[in-house]
Design a protein that fits this description.
Layout lengths: L4 E4 L18 E6 L7 E6 L6 E9 L4 E3 L6 E4 L9 H4 L1 E5 L3 E6 L9 E4 L3 E8 L2 E5 L2 E5 L3 E5 L4 E6 L5 E7 L27 E2 L10 E10 L2 E9 L4 E6 L4 E4 L18 E4 L3 E6 L2 E2 L13 E2 L4 E8 L12 E5 L4 E2 L5 H5 L4 E2 L2 E7 L4 E3 H5 L1 E2 L10
Parallel strand pairs: 9-17
Antiparallel strand pairs: 1-19, 2-3, 3-19, 4-18, 5-30, 6-26, 6-31, 7-8, 7-30, 8-15, 9-14, 10-13, 10-15, 11-12, 11-14, 13-20, 16-20, 17-18, 21-22, 22-29, 23-28, 24-27, 25-26, 25-29
The structure holds fe (ii) ion.
């Protein structure tokens, strides 16, 4: 997160005596990234955050790959992913490579029995259906339809859902996720041409401070395995922190689309960046206003990136037979484009209600066995004339 945030009580100087009302000391933790060079937060805990009581074992959550070297375009019917009461069990990896897992999840219940911490990856959770509260050791954020939740690696969290009808599109990134550098000035401030600004990024607003001892289960993900670790103190015991490393939320509905006289390329929709993929938001907007413009995209070759589109809402003008919750995969190396009739259909149209999230990866994605359960195996032929 490229700007400073402070929540709760902190001492005037870092690394100095900070006393509880009873005279004992709060425990300080520097919560950092990229060694000591990346963004960090400095937090103050009721107890030492290091008190491991027991490691109960581990289990693999690595995805099972169906197609490692894929050249086929696919459509996956995302809402056919079967809901599961448990949040972690509900997460199904659809597409994967060494940088990123693209996941669909339909959890029915809040995470009541454990805390979760992903040490492998930043997690970007897009809320397609559902609402509730993201609770973390660095404060809480409310979420609802259309929100991106960015949870940096290492943040301990729980998800409280308001009801059981939840659909999440999750990007689990082993590379850090940032807002695009070209939107920011030398000082990190978002520039005037950025499609969003600091006011649109919601910071944690509510800190839960639990001064409790006992047995607290944190499911810690590391190297594709989940370790069941029992800690002796409550993981949410922070009285205050400040810094740059914390979870935040951004609503796709706050993305201000950039439009032009002729078709604008995908980078105008960019929302997040990493050195391994980009995330773009396709939002309701006015179409191109040149009198002869073709609003549908032109055919294009993804020579060196795989293109994943997650369809959220509205009418998807360039595609036939696409519904909310579908994912399309257009792999590197071959061209794709509008479906038959879509170019003609688009001419003269003035606006679109489409809402979609795109992930373009620079390394090829492997298709998992879970994805094949909901795959349309004929999609790659859907550009043929009938
Ligand atoms: Fe495309």
């Amino acid at each position: 997160m490229p700007f400073y945030h402070k929540l709760g009580k902190i001492p005037h100087k870092r690394h100095t005596v900070f006393k509880k009302p009873d005279g004992s000391l709060y425990s300080e933790q520097l919560f950092g990234t990229i060694g000591f060079d990346g963004m960090s937060s400095n937090s103050y805990h009721e107890h030492r955050p290091t008190q491991v009581k027991e490691i109960r074992g581990s289990y693999s959550v690595k995805p099972k790959v169906a197609t490692a070297n894929n050249i086929k375009s696919y459509r996956f019917r995302g809402f056919q992913v079967i809901p599961h009461p448990d949040y972690l069990e509900s997460r199904k990896v659809m597409l994967t490579n060494s940088d990123v897992d693209i996941i669909l999840a339909s959890p029915q219940e809040s995470t009541n029995d454990y805390f979760y911490k992903n040490t492998d990856a930043d997690e970007l959770i897009f809320i397609h259906k559902g609402s509730g509260k993201l609770r973390t050791h660095l404060g809480n954020l409310d979420f609802k339809y259309g929100d991106y939740l960015l949870i940096p690696r290492g943040v301990i969290y729980k998800l409280d859902f308001d009801d059981e009808n939840n659909r999440l599109f999750i990007v689990e990134s082993r590379r850090p996720i940032y807002t695009p550098k070209r939107y920011r000035n030398y000082f990190g401030q978002l520039l005037e041409h950025s499609p969003f600004c600091e006011r649109d990024l919601r910071q944690p607003y509510e800190l839960e401070t639990n001064d409790e001892k006992g047995d607290f289960l944190i499911k810690v993900k590391k190297q594709g395995e989940i370790f069941d670790m029992i800690y002796a103190t409550h993981p949410f015991d922070v009285v205050g922190y400040d810094g740059y490393n914390y979870p935040y939320a951004f609503s796709i509905h706050d993305f201000e689309p950039i439009t032009g006289r002729i078709h604008q390329p995908p980078p105008v929709h960019q929302t997040f960046e990493t050195d391994a993929f980009v995330v773009c938001s396709f939002c309701p907007r006015k179409y191109d206003y040149h009198p002869e413009s073709i609003p549908a995209p032109y055919n294009h070759s993804n020579i060196d990136s795989d293109e994943v589109l997650y369809y959220v809402d509205g009418d998807f003008m360039s595609r036939n037979d696409i519904e909310a919750g579908h994912i399309s995969l257009h792999p590197a190396g071959i061209p794709h484009g509008p479906h038959p009739g879509a170019v003609e259909r688009s001419i003269g149209q003035t606006e679109t209600e489409e809402l979609a999230v795109m992930v373009d990866t620079f390394k090829p994605l492997m298709v998992t066995e879970e994805a094949m359960k909901i795959a349309d195996d004929t999609y790659h032929k859907s550009w043929l004339d009938h």
